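REVIEWER CHECKLIST
Item 1: Sequence provided? yes
Item 2: Single chain? yes
Item 3: Sequence as submitted:
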Amino acid sequence: MFLGTLTGSLLTAPLAAKAQRADKVVRVGFVDAVSSRNVPWIAAFERRLMELGYVEGKNLAIEFRTAEGRTDRLQALATELVGLKPDVIVASAGPDGTLALKHATSIMPRRSA
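Item 4: Structure as written out by the authors:
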């Protein structure tokens, strides 16, 4: 599953169900066109995950990739993230990021437990 846009309602549904398995590390792939990880809305995203019981390094791993303003890099970054087999991919790179993910996979592969 990947999210083309970042909204609280979309974020809470798929991850809240997984919060009950404390032994499982949830992997979130994150691709952005320009932002570094240190921007307010990404901090809000991480804060919401913490409210849901996810702590990076404990039961959460976030794989963050940025194209640093070079949209020609989005396809390679999307392909790399799909190869990591995350539980969710968040594309905050606008239509270009969503399209890159669409080309990288039509169905998110599931990790084996």
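Item 5: Key structural point noted by reviewer: The CA atoms of residues 75 and 99 lie 8 Å apart.
Item 6: Recommendation: ____
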